[in-house]
Amino acid sequence: MTTVSHSPLPRKPTRMTVSHS
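User: That's the sequence. What structure does it adopt?
Assistant: Structure tokens below.
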């Protein structure tokens, strides 16, 4: 969770990004 959230991803992983965003 923290890895993806902190990673500058183009909002692809709607599983972790959505949680953080």
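The helical segments are 2-6, 17-20.
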